[in-house]
């Protein structure tokens, strides 16, 4: 019997680069049966382990790698904590405090380092004993300002590891110690010594043996880069934090109580204000105008306009009445509602969205996994290159100053932090922006699949069409309202979608429904009843004829026109004759035609794939601009259609919402599920659309491609930067301080490039 598995999330402090990620993963996966995925941007690890492995063992494994870990609380507990406190990221340390501390270190270090750099760069400003002032100012910058880097270095060295911080400590430490040696034991401390700064080491004056400006300047540049990185990572995670804090902290629950026989006017229902954590499934709660809906539920009383934009991305408020479903975290803008809770805590749609986004942010693309493997051996290789650089320069007869400068430049320029941030920060921003627009991305694999899609298969009902029947045309021998009133009077007792459409249209036109007696229904054929002393029928044309009602020429013409439009018809007959033809059809979503056009502009050929009959499918396809139709398709036929296109070399996306679409969604290269559909479809999908809008589904493909493009750009920059910069540094063509600025900029560039995704907008 196999050991059951558990899954835990760990918050990890102290990681700074991709090699840190690789080290933590290696320590965790060294435990028997443990699988781990570590993310630098979110500073979190998701661990799957046998139940025999304890949380303390996992935390201890991370500690052996030189970092601190804590078990992450469940999503509903974090949401409650975030509602009570200022929202923060999921790390164990307060990011606001981290940013504040970094800012303080940066400001103080910059003030102290500026004179050091200026004195080194401008010989005319150098006065007698200036070098000793530089030492006095540079010392706190190197040791206090650079403390975060040095602390991480020694923490990992205790466990026999090296990281990006090791390179920083070695580089700045070597520059500082060289300068101290030159001042106390060399010629640099002499009165009247002058120093010239140059960008290129081979041209350096051999008497320029001080590197205090390098030690101080590099520290300031790295602190600035780390501060920008931390602030940007916080901004990147704002969308998820917004999701986690949307729900109300308290809710007004309605409680029934027994009638008071001594006070017949006393209310039998009271209102009680309770914390949201105490709300139970089945409880009835009140939502007033301007309040957030506490949790998912069904409206049992009232009507209101509800703003769902923060959850679905749809800007137009939704009108909700009794029987409507409502999403927790949405806001009632007009009217009050009494809602019956159908889900609470981690089972709500809002919580599942947050969990899906968090899971996606932990993923890694294939290229990022390669980057992680490279980074795990990168730092030791750089140390060897730096040592080799110094030896080669010394053996070729160069000065010790030139050899030292080149080696320090290699150490500083090679830090691989940009590699570690390339994918996770872009995923953090892209998935967060998607969540704001009602798009849930399963992970980087979904982004990679979206890049090459050239065929997009669309289910009809619920995807291209609304899935709700409505009255399209009414032919009447007399008054149209009379036909609708009589038809609605007969259909009012039915829950069939066609009956509901007729009743809704009659209500919209304020057609007064008469009283029906002697009501009779024949399943699948129609209904009859007595109205005002006469028999009235509503149903199929053949049923009307079987019951003895004549179909006249005008009625026959109306039926023929409806057949050409592939609509469903209900005839309304009385006084022995069909006197009305009501044409009912599933309505095409208003955004469908424009969405199909955008799909074509993105290089995707749309195909309507439906189980409906060919005539109806052709009508819908013509309305939205689709030229290729596959109709009468069973679930297995849909899978076969996907496989045929794949076998022909196409990359296929499938959009659907029903159980019958789930297999095709799973088979397709990219599966997209409408959020209004079934759990089976959503479970099989790579992308889920909360609002059910087809336009948003196409935007999801756009966002996926844009995010993948940013990731590829980030990784290219990070790789190209190190590939180009290390040889330049080894050849002595970079001053170490310039190398430090360039290294810090590479990380900042990756983060700022990723933040461009926050500006992604749905297509107009």
TrEMBL record:
Transmembrane segments annotated in the record for this chain: 106-124, 130-147, 167-188, 208-228, 374-396, 402-429, 714-731, 737-755
Keyword Transmembrane helix: yes
CDD domains tied to this protein: HMA, P-type_ATPase_Cu-like
A UniProt-annotated Pfam family: Hydrolase
Chief location: membrane
PROSITE patterns: ATPASE_E1_E2, COF_2, HMA_1, HMA_2
Domain of life per record: Bacteria
Record InterPro entries: ATPase_P-typ_cyto_dom_N, ATPase_P-typ_P_site, ATPase_P-typ_TM_dom_sf, ATPase_P-typ_transduc_dom_A_sf, ATPase_P-type_domA, HAD-like_sf, HAD_sf, Heavy-metal-associated_CS
Cell location: Cell membrane
Bilayer disposition of the protein: Multi-pass membrane protein
Residue ranges of every copy of the HMA domain listed in the record: 6-70
Composition bias, Basic and acidic residues: 74-86
Regions annotated as coiled coil: none
Location of region: Disordered: 73-97
Keyword Cell membrane on entry: yes
Record key words, sorted: ATP-binding, Cell membrane, Membrane, Metal-binding, Nucleotide-binding, Translocase, Transmembrane, Transmembrane helix
Assigned protein family: Belongs to the cation transport ATPase (P-type) (TC 3.A.3) family. Type IB subfamily.
Protein's UniProt name: Cu+-exporting ATPase
Classification of source organism: Bacteria, Bacillati, Actinomycetota, Actinomycetes, Micrococcales
């Amino acid at each position: 019997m196999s050991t059951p598995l558990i899954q835990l999330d760990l918050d990890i402090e102290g990681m700074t680069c991709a090699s840190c990620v690789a080290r933590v993963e290696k320590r965790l996966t060294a435990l028997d049966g443990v699988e781990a995925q570590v993310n630098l941007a979110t500073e979190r690890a998701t661990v799957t382990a046998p139940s025999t492995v304890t949380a303390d063992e996992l935390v201890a494994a991370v500690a052996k790698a030189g970092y601190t870990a804590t078990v992450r609380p469940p999503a509903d507990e974090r949401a409650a904590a975030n509602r009570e406190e200022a929202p923060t990221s999921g790390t164990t340390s307060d990011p606001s405090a981290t940013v504040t501390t970094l800012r303080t270190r940066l400001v103080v270090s910059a003030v102290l380092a500026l004179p050091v750099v200026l004195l080194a760069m401008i010989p005319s400003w150098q006065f007698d004993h200036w070098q000793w002032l530089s030492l006095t100012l540079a010392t706190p910058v190197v040791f206090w300002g650079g403390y975060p880097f040095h602390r991480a270095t020694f923490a990992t060295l205790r466990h026999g590891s090296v990281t990006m911080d090791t390179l920083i400590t070695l580089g700045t430490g070597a520059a500082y110690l060289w300068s101290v040696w030159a001042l106390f034991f060399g010629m640099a401390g002499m009165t009247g010594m002058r120093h010239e700064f140059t960008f290129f080491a081979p041209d350096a004056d051999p008497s320029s043996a001080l590197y205090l400006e390098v030690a101080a300047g590099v520290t300031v540049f790295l602190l600035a880069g780390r501060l920008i990185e931390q602030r940007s990572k916080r901004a990147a995670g704002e969308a998820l934090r917004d999701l986690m804090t949307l729900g109300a902290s308290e809710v007004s629950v309605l409680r029934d109580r027994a009638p008071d026989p001594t006070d017949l006017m006393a209310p039998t229902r009271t209102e009680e204000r309770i914390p949201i954590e105490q709300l139970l499934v089945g409880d009835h709660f009140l939502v007033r105008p301007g309040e957030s809906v506490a949790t998912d539920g069904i409206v049992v009383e009232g009507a209101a306009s509800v703003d769902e934009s923060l959850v679905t991305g749809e800007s137009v408020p939704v009108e909700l009445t009794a029987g409507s479903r409502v999403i927790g975290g949405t806001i009632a803008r007009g009217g009050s509602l009494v809602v019956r809770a159908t889900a609470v805590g981690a089972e709500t749609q809002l919580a599942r969205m947050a969990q899906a986004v968090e899971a996606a942010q932990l993923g890694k693309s294939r290229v990022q996994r390669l980057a992680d493997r490279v980074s795990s051996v990168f730092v030791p290789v750089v140390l060897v290159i730096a040592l080799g650089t110094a030896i080669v320069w010394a053996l070729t007869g160069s000065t010790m100053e030139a050899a030292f400068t080149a080696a320090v430049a290699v150490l500083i320029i090679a830090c691989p932090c940009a590699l570690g941030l390339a994918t996770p920060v872009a995923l953090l921003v892209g998935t967060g922006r998607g969540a704001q627009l009602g798009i849930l991305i399963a992970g980087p694999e979904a982004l990679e699949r979206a890049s090459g899609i050239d065929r997009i298969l669309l289910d009809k009902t619920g995807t291209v069409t609304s899935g709700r029947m409505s009255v399209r045309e009414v032919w009447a021998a007399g008054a149209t309202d009379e036909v609708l009133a009589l038809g609605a009077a007969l259909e009012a007792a039915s829950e069939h979608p066609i009956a509901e459409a007729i009743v809704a249209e009659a209500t919209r036109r304020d057609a007064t429904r008469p009283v029906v007696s002697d009501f009779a229904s024949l399943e699948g054929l129609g209904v009859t009843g007595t109205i005002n002393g006469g028999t009235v029928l509503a149903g199929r044309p053949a049923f009307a004829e079987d019951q003895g009602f004549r179909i006249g020429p005008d009625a026959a013409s109306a039926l023929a026109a409806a057949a050409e439009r592939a609509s469903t018809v209900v005839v309304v007959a009385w006084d022995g004759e069909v006197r009305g033809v009501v044409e009912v059809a599933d309505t095409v979503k208003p955004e469908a035609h424009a969405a199909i056009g955008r799909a074509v502009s993105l290089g995707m050929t749309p195909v309507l794939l439906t189980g409906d009959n060919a005539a109806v499918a052709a009508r819908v396809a013509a309305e939205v601009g689709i030229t290729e139709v596959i109709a009468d398709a069973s679930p297995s036929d849909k899978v076969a259609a996907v496989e045929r296109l794949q076998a022909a070399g196409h990359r296929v996306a499938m959009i659907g919402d029903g159980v019958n679409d789930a297999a095709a969604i799973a088979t397709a290269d990219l599966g997209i599920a409408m959020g209004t559909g079934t759990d089976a479809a959503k479970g099989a999908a790579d992308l889920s659309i909360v609002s059910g809008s087809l336009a948003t589904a196409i935007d999801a493909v756009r966002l996926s491609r844009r995010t993948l493009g940013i990731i590829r750009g980030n990784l290219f920059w990070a790789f190209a930067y190190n590939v180009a910069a290390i040889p330049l540094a080894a050849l002595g063509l970079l001053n170490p301080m310039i190398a430090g600025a360039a290294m810090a900029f590479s990380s900042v560039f990756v983060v700022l490039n990723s933040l461009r995704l926050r500006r992604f907008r749905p297509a107009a």
